[in-house]
Amino acid sequence: MTGVLKNIGRLRGDRVIWLLILFFAMISMAVVYSATSSLAFRKDTTPFSYLLDQAGFYIIGFAVLLVCYRIPLKIYRILSYAAIAVAAALLIVPIATHNLRSFSLLGIPIHPAEIAKVAVVLYLARIIEASGLDTFREYALKILIPVGAVCALTMMGSMSATLIIGILTLIILICSGVNRKFILWTIPIALGAVAVAFTVSVLSKGKVFSRFETFGERIERHFSGNEEEMTAQELAEYEEKTFQADQAREAVQLGGIFGRGPGNSIKRDILPNAYDDYIYAVIVEEYGLIGGIAVIVLYLWFFYRCMKIARACTRKFSIIVVLGLSTLITMQAFLHILVNVGLLPVTGQTLPMISRGGTALIIMNCAFGIILSVNRTIEIKDLKLKTEKEETTCSTES
Questions:
Q1: The pLDDT of residue 39
Q2: Which CA distances in Å does 138 have to 66, 103, 121?
Q3: Is there a contact between 58 and 357 (Cβ–Cβ < 8 Å)?
């Protein structure tokens, strides 16, 4: 036990980020335990069993985090090429099995879109660092085609995940100094590709790119809502389709300033996905506006610390990795929050590091580990420079 504590004490990297990981874990345990009560009832078990499952996923996730934290950056540079290829291969599996979004491996559901998000960041970081991207042909071959292929495969199962990858790619390209003309050409090309995918979806009557219909319906429901012009039957159908979003908004309203108290949520037993897609609504209902703001502050604090790490980096790969992964985590968190408070249509994106565990939780731990690996490398370099300076000073004095 003493040896373990010593090893933990020797962990390098931003201490605030290590602390934030602990905070996220504590919040996750408390809220998942409460939010799974209806699920436990349906499965004839207890919320405590789901709490143990979440603890197990966090233990696995933390083990993955430590492994990723210890891997040198030169290995990530090598793995970045394989990462996007593996992500693309995994995205094909659910399509081939007609599940579209996930597949099961040893009884564990795997969501390849979550893996693809991190893989794209690593790939872009390596390509931008290693290639000049002087011509549009090189830019298209090395960025547009590989990332576009991943987006196309992701689009088969999740439009929101595709949007996250697309927006994240655009942010990375802009921030990394890629030729602005290439980026401007990317936008119409991407819109054209989406138009082609939509046409294929229509012609195949939803058999290919079936998520277009679901995505369109969600947007229409979110921005229409003119109930006065609906018949009784249309209103009933509309309310059935907007049930989850309506219940989430009501949960936020019930929370007030101080909340109903831990474990006292009413809507957790009504919301079908209170433990993942709508966990922020449960947080606000139980812990109030104060608890909701506290969660937002944690994500903003994390992003701020990551920007400090990025500013300390000297290599493009490190800068883009930290910028990309921190933006991914923060963007997904705010996407989830805005959906829960009714400002955006339903997306099905979980709250990073807090929603009920699985592939998403493990992959997010992986992302945290990679960020801390970059930070560890910076600290080791700074320590070496400091030691060299001290040795030089000592030799000069002697």
A1: 86
A2: 36, 35, 18
A3: yes
The model carries a pTM of 0.88
Strands (E), the chain: 103-105, 108-110
pLDDT tens per residue, range 318-368: 999 999 999 999 999 999 999 999 888 888 889 999 999 788 999 999 999
Encoded tokens for 344: 């955006």
Distance between CA 31 and CA 212 in Å, rounded? 32
Which is it for the CA torsion 235, 236, 239, 241, positive or negative?
A: negative
Tokens linked to 364: 């997010």
Q: Phi/psi at 105 (nearest 5 deg)?
A: -130, 115
Q: Which amino acid is at 82?
A: A
Residue 330's alpha-carbon distances to 83, 243, 250, 295, 370, in angstroms, are 22, 27, 25, 11, 15
User: In this structure, are residues 345 and 218 in contact, taking their beta carbons and an 8 Å threshold?
Assistant: yes
Other CB atoms within a 10 A radius of the CB of residue 339 amount to 25
Which residues contact residue 343 at a Cβ distance below 8 angstroms, ignoring those fewer than 6 apart?
none
Q: How far is CA 229 from the centre of its chain?
A: 39
